[in-house]
Amino acid sequence: MKNKKIALVAAMACGAAGLVAPAGTASASSAIFTSIDETHPITVGAPMNPYNAKGNSFDSYDQMELGYSQYNGLHPDADYPAIAATWKSVPGGLDVYIQAKADWSNGQPVTSTDVKDSAALAFVMGTQPFNLASVTVLGPKEVRFNTEPGTHNRLFAAQVLGTIVTPSSEYASLLPSDIWSVIAASEGKGAAAKKAAATLQKLAPKVEDFAPKTDISAGPFYIARLNAGEALLLKNPDFYAASKIAPKEVVLRNYTGNEEIWSYMEAGQLDVSPYTAMPTNVLHEVVRAGNIEVIAPSFVAVALAFDEARYPYGMQPVRQALAYLLNRNEITKVGEPVSGKPAKYQTGLIDSVSAQWLPGPELAKLDRYNYDPAKATSLLKGAGFTERSGNWYLPNGKAWKITLETPSGFSDWDAAASYMSHELTAFGIPTSVGTAPDYATYLSKIANGDYATAFWLNALGPAVYNAYARVWGKNVTSAGNQLTTKGSFLHTPASFKTSSYGPVALNNLTNGLEDMTTAQAKPVVAKLAAAYNQELPMITIWDYILVQFVTNKHFTDWPHSSGLLNNPPGLWMWNGYVHAK
After folding, report:
1. Whole-angstrom Cα distance, residue 496 to residue 492?
2. Residue 235 in contact with residue 247, Cβ under 8 Å?
3. Same structural domain, 195 and 73
4. Spatial separation of the C-alpha atoms in residues 191 and 189, rounded to whole Å
5. Which residues are paired to 32 by β-bridges?
6. What are the tens digits of pLDDT across the range 20-61?
7. Domain with 581 in it: what CATH number?
8. Which residue among 300, 328, 375, 415 sits deepest, i.e. has the most Cβ atoms within 10 Å of its Cβ?
């Protein structure tokens, strides 16, 4: 993918010896830390506002959340403390305790009011945790997030802890005094709910356009200067863990594309370099410049997905035959040679997570779908397809042609699709590549059912519920304050008869995962993995690998925990890593 960090990491595999070095003794106060914020380029003129789509705020540096995910495949609700020091589940909600020494960069304390108002702003912007009803201030540094009556969501705590915290001194004036009454009304039904939801939606542009005069940060740094080339952030002496922060300054370089990031890396100008898709020749130059790989598997994969409502892709033998025809090892070498790992298993999960959730005997029972044109031929002929003069014909007698759909700019998908088209055409299925002009158009066409076969991200984690909801169950989207539920564009069956478990109620089991403990979920995951393996709604091509780079020129003590490595570097610092040489 282009300029996208795959921020879903399961476990770290260290890519170079000597990655973690002893802490340096040089003066940390003189150190300048240089990196890239890969989540967005710098936008000159955009406000220092995390609610603005192009806003200049930088996660873990000056933008802070209550907590940060540990990206644990078995325990997706595990988080690192941030503004929240601790938290505990209580009947009907979650109690959050703010760091006792958490202060804003203007010296004022971070309070429960800041957190409550930030939760209200999340409602306005449509990013609130599912099932959240209200927030109650229990003390200056203690708040309770209340769930909607009669609801339960195992991931509620993780969703709450993802709340961005902003200062009420800046943002409270954007909210009406009765904001929580409006929020409560919006969660009801009828005309009153629609009116309240409309009120929240009208507030959103006001919040998004707000431009603070200075950056008031609760993080380890605050923005001192911005220009078209870089952002300069200075150390925040009022940060609650300031004693652990080695850099006096952070410089975040701007970029316009992957090539510019590669140039920084080849010149050895970045202390930490983010994930970018890159060809092997660029990797060699980057490593030659002294950059050290930090590698970890991620909680996302890419797959060829099928709309089963489109003939002939509703036929299981067709999808299985195509799985045998696509040589995943070779496709990955072409599409994602640096940041991809060919998928071994077809379970709906990335391979490392499959190994965590499914015992060896369960994995051994599953079809690996290794490259085997003879099996593909047998499946197709058994389903009524015919081969004449080297070309395949559908059971209805028409010639079979395939278009592999991709969005413009996703260079790895485009390269993979091109290779796959040659594979399938050589087998006798004339195949071309269709390219949407942009990703927004691509998503719109998928939703409209315009594509029979299309590239699609799957295996989304760390929660297995999220991975399987991508295929079955409910797909919940947010528009303003309105949460809507839609079925999957894949048009997969709601139930399926597996050879190992008999009939499996796919939608019901998937939706039930949301509220299950790990122990309760394991037998359910086994059934869903078996169903995915047989029904094959998508063919997983490769698992993405998070490949970052560090240098030891100015700093040492890089983290070795995959959970930390998958988070932005500010989090590394206040967890005791990144020391000046």
Report:
1. 9
2. yes
3. yes
4. 7
5. 249
6. 333 333 344 458 999 999 887 899 899 999 999 899 999 999
7. 3.40.190.10
8. 328
Which residues, listed in sequence order, are joined to residue 388 by a DSSP beta bridge? Answer: 391
DSSP string, 189-239: -HHHHHHHHHHHHHHHHHHHH---SS---SSSEEEEEE-SSEEEEEE-TTS
- Separation between Cα atoms, residue 262 and residue 282, nearest integer Å: 7
Beta strand 142-147 with 93-98 is antiparallel
Q: How far apart are CA 512 and CA 504, in angstroms?
A: 13
Assess if residue 309 is contained within a domain: yes
Predicted confidence (pLDDT) per residue in 343-355, tens digit: 999 999 999 999 9
pLDDT for 30: 52
Kindly give the parts of the chain with pLDDT less than 70.
1-30, 474-488
Is the previous residue joined to 274 through a cis bond, with omega within 30 degrees of 0? no
Place of tokens 């139930």: 495
Residue 476 lies in a domain: no
List alpha helices for 302-372, DSSP H: 316-325, 328-335, 351-357, 360-364
Position 268 scores a pLDDT of: 93
Contact by Cβ (8 Å): 504, 529? no
Question: What are the DSSP E strand ranges found in 262-356?
Answer: 272-273, 292-306, 340-342
Is position 113 within any domain? Answer: yes
Strand partners, 87: 96
107's torsion region: left (phi>0), alpha (psi -120 to 50) or beta?
left
Cα gap 221→85, rounded to integer Å:
19
Contact 93, 147 (CB under 8 A): yes
Range(s) of the domain holding residue 250: 8-42+219-291+551-581
- What pLDDT is recorded for position 154? 81
What element of type H or E holds 373?
A: helix 373-382
Omega prior to 76 cis, within 30 of 0? no
Rounded to an integer, what distance in angstroms lies between the CA atom of residue 173 and that of residue 504?
52
Contact of 573 with 248, CB cutoff 8 Å: no
